[in-house]
Design a protein that fits this description.
alpha+beta, 3-stranded antiparallel β-sheet, 7 helices
Length: 190
């Protein structure tokens, strides 16, 4: 009886070990196919950024074209809002270094207020460029959302106490240079 049990366990173990050692077929090589549309849209956004504007690419996939387009626009707006807040934070940091104001200055709340106001405005923005591609029954949508740097300057100008101290600084001069560069870029596009 013990021998029978031993042979049974030995046979089962041998089968299991043999089954594990069977070579598996090699997976088919994955073709590295890069769609051109995402790269094209990102390059477009990058050109706008290099010209002094702010641009964000939003993407989304869905079985519904309308949903994919709407979500791509929403994702683009969210990314643009993040970019605006980051740009204002850079401006604030440069302003602080130049003016040596204390970090807790009430004056600095104007930067936060301007960022929040611009983020609220972005919620209603229309996509500068909107494209999609179809793979099977799935739509992939791309939306480029754009904001002129002038909108940041205009919003900061509404914060009168802050703007009076900001306008003569190099930080603001850099922003105005971006505005001029972007205006020239836009004129060349027409």
């Amino acid at each position: 009886m013990k021998k029978g049990l031993f042979y049974t366990i030995f046979a089962i173990s041998s089968l299991l070990l043999t089954g594990c050692s069977i070579p598996r077929p090699e997976p088919a090589p994955v073709q590295d196919v890069q769609p051109t549309l995402p790269g094209e849209m990102q390059q477009y956004a990058d050109r706008i950024i290099q010209a002094g504007g702010l641009a964000a690419l939003g993407t989304d996939e869905s079985n519904s074209l309308e949903l994919a387009l709407n979500m791509a626009k929403k994702n683009g707006r969210l990314e643009l809002s993040r970019m605006v807040k980051a740009r204002i934070e850079v401006l604030k940091t440069a302003f602080l270094e130049e003016t040596e104001l204390p970090q807790d200055s009430r004056l600095l709340s104007g930067f936060t207020d301007a960022g929040d106001a611009l983020s609220n405005q972005i919620a209603g923005y229309v996509a500068q460029t909107l494209k999609y591609e179809t793979v099977g029954n799935t739509y992939t949508a791309y939306a480029v959302m754009v904001l002129d740097s002038k909108a940041i300057a205009d919003q900061l100008a509404k914060e009168t106490d802050l703007f009076a101290k900001l306008e003569p600084t190099q930080a603001y001069a850099a922003l105005t240079q971006e505005i001029k560069t972007y205006a020239a870029f836009q004129a060349a596009q027409k």
